[in-house]
Structures are given as C-alpha cells and as structure tokens.
Amino acid sequence: MEKITRSLKVGDEIPILTKTAYMPIDPNGRNVIHTDDYARDFGMRGALIGGSTLLSYVLEMLYNYFGQNWFYHGKINVSFIGGGAINGDIVTAHGVIKAIEKEAGSNRLTLDVYLENQMQEKIVVGEASCLKS
Amino acid sequence: MTQKSSWEALPIGLEMGPLEIVLDSNTVKKRAELVHWETQEQLEKLGFTPPGITIRYHAQMKFAALPDLRASIWAKSEHEFLKPMKVGTKVYIRGKIIEKYVKRDRNYVVADYETVDEEGEVLMRSRETTVYVE
What we know:
The structure holds 2 protein chains of 2 kinds.
Chain A: E1 17-20, H1 36-41, H2 51-66, H3 69-73, E2 75-80, E3 90-103, E4 106-116, E5 122-132
Antiparallel strand pairs in A: 1-3, 2-5, 3-4, 4-5
Chain B: H1 6-9, E1 15-22, H2 25-34, H3 40-46, H4 56-65, E2 71-81, E3 90-103, E4 106-116, E5 122-133
Antiparallel strand pairs in B: 1-3, 2-5, 3-4, 4-5
C-alpha cells in the first residue's frame, strides 16, 4: 500500500496499473457479445472482454492506493466507451485526484479514473472516491 | 397488432435472484488468477476477497431472469463498497430492474443489485446500465 509521504493535491496521479486483458471464451456462455462472430457484426474488433473484468483492473489500482479503506468507503461510477477490449490488449488503469474533502475526520479523495488500451484509447471512464487515511 | 419485443414487455420492478455464492478459497483464487490480481497473497492473509469479485454474477442473474436476452453490454456501472467479502463465507445477491429507456436506437436496462452476507448485512450496492439485445 502506498503511504502518504507528502501532502496530496488536486491533479496528482495515483500509481497506474497495466495488465494484459484476458477473458476465456465460454463456448456455452449465453452472452453472444463474448463471441467473435457476433461482436464483429456489432462493429467490434472481436469477442469483447466482460465489463466486470475491465472494472476489476480499475478496482485493483484503487485497492492498491487506498488499501483496506476501499472495502468500507470505496465508491466508483464508470461508463464503458469506445470499442471495449479484446484478448491480448494491453490496458492501463489511471486515477487523477480531482477533489479532496474532509469527511469523518479523514480526507475523501475523488478521482477521475479511466482505463485505456495500447492505442491510448479510453475504454472505461468515470469517477471513484474513498477515504484516505 | 404487432407482438411486443421482449424488451418492451420487460416489467420495471422485475426481481432477479437471490443468487447464493459460496466464496470458498478455490473460487476466490480462480477469479483472482483470471484477472491477474497481483496482491492476492496479501488479501488471503486478511481473509478478504478482491473487491468486486461478485460483480460478474450480476450478468448471470440477468440472463437467468430474461430468457430472450441474447447480448448484454455494459454501458454504465456504479458500485458502493460497504464491507469486505470474506473468504469461506456465503453471500447473496438480489437484483431488480428499475428503469429502461431507448437512446440512439438502442434499448437500455438499468438494474440495482445488493450483495449481503449471511447475517443480511449489506456489503455492496450496485447500479448497472446495459444495452439489451434480443
């Protein structure tokens, strides 16, 4: 977990997290957006990786930064945009502090968060907040 | 008279679940490995699952409740974390369709989910908006 060694300020970026996106294709899965043929017909590059998997990359970055506080005080609100991710994409989660407010004797940090692919295209964008001790 | 599509016929207030999930160590480990969760060992020591580990089950609940649904594509996702989910426990998810709308010729569904522990304490609240394809 990152310890605060200096004062936080709006505009600071928290440590990023990079992953190779991966989701196994379930041949019996009912959601056809996770199949190549249907996803291409829908205008995508191939079988889309599930939103919950993409979200987990952002959540891991937030947990790494906020630690156990995230389990009790974490909030996230994101939109899925662009062409999503397919297996093998290199995706990087980012978070930038946009507000710091006092709450319950602590600071609630609000961050702009996003996940972008290897082409620097944003595929998840939104906001997250949590108390930072 | 034309027949209503399954999206048109979808009733607001439709309940989904409850779905019981056993968070045994194998289930947790498998999911953590799948998303390459790097601090899994640290979480194991705490006895907690990675946050949001049950979110993927929301889609499963939707498909179980909506037999004509062919594809569900996330548009928005909102979650509030209230307590950690513990390895070796059971959690229960209840969902409800709360809204539907059309935007740019696509049908959307908004659903709320609440995940509770065995004592009924709320661990996570979620609201998800998905594109509904039948």
